[in-house]
Write a structure and sequence with these properties.
Blueprint lengths: L4 E11 L5 H13 L4 E4 L2 E5 L13 E9 L7 E3 L4 E3 L1 H4 L13 E8 L4 E5 L5 H12 L2 H7 L3 E4 L3 H8 L3 E10 L11 H9 L4 E7 L10 H13 E9 L2 E6 L7 E5 L6 H17 L1
Antiparallel strand pairs: 1-8, 1-9, 1-14, 2-3, 3-4, 4-7, 5-6, 7-8, 10-11, 10-12, 12-13
């Protein structure tokens, strides 16, 4: 029996206004078919390498792999380790390797759920921040913005991050920031709060609160609702004290990282990812 493996999945929220599932699919598929390349950091780049809907249509999901690779400038000088001679393509007019070949390939599985405009991805060896950086490079281009408008992307933080902030014994500072949610992300907002965002046509929301009171701040239901919107659409940052100990929390430091164990002899990585991803969709978005 093969040794069990662990898979970890995280979630990215993609937003455009106005939005429909069909528009999200069109945008996502457009980035794939145009073979857009986005920068991650340094020489690390990536692209949507595959985009499929042939096996899991009843779940209304798309799936595939992100390709991560080194995107170096082939026109820079090269070193031949055999004779330590340099190769300068500017002088020779030839590249040591074809420009369409990219080294150090890694494949990261993903699931795209357009009904809730979420991407669930294998973050076992590819961090949520790396995926956010890549998708910002892929989707925030003049070509995409011209057709679909600005694309906002956020890493989904855990509910526990909000709970930890609320439970700080003496909360002295609270910062809530988010970009306008799609309507399906405002279901937890009621009355005046939702009206404030919708009727005033707010695109970006920012609320700063602080106190010197001995008891600290006591977030009410309205503030907690705003924090939960920011959990998916922005960030929450808090400072407080537990006795003399300073407490500092940010939802950015607590992305969702759901884990599952599987036997590679009984299930492929792709099947495990899709099955686990469907379970997470039911858990978080149904």
């Amino acid at each position: 029996m093969a040794k069990e493996r662990t898979m970890q999945m995280s979630i990215l929220n993609i937003k455009i206004h106005p939005h429909t599932p069909k528009l999200y699919v069109k945008m996502f598929k457009g980035v794939f078919t145009r073979k857009h390349v986005g920068k991650i950091r340094g020489s690390d780049s990536g692209m949507i390498g595959s985009f499929r809907d042939d096996l899991y249509n009843k779940h209304q999901i798309y799936y595939g792999y992100i390709y991560k690779f080194l995107n170096i400038d082939p026109n820079e000088k090269w070193l031949n380790l055999t004779d330590f001679k340099t190769i300068d393509p500017q002088e020779t007019g030839e590249l040591p390797v074809p420009h369409n070949l990219k080294p150090n390939l890694r494949q990261i599985g993903y699931i795209f759920y357009p009904a809730k405009h979420r991407v669930l991805f294998n973050s076992t060896s590819f961090s949520p921040n790396s995926m956010l950086s890549l998708f910002n490079g892929l989707f925030n281009t003049p070509e995409i913005e011209k057709e679909f408008g600005q694309v906002d992307l956020n890493i989904e933080a855990t509910q526990e991050a909000i709970t930890k902030i609320i439970q700080i014994p003496k909360l002295t500072k609270l910062s809530i920031n988010f970009t306008r949610p799609n309507n399906d992300d405002m279901e937890g907002l009621e009355g005046a709060v939702r009206a404030r965002i919708e009727n005033q046509n707010i695109k970006r929301f920012r609320q700063e609160s602080s106190t010197n009171d001995e008891e600290g701040m006591l977030p009410d239901e309205e503030t907690i609702a705003l924090m939960n919107v920011a959990r998916s659409n922005g960030s929450v940052y808090a400072i407080g004290y537990d006795g003399e100990e300073k407490k500092e929390y940010s939802t950015k430091d607590h992305p969702i990282k759901e884990r599952i164990k599987y036997d590679p002899e009984l299930a492929t990585e792709t099947n495990t990812m899709v099955g686990f991803g469907i379970d997470l969709i039911k858990k978080f978005f149904k």
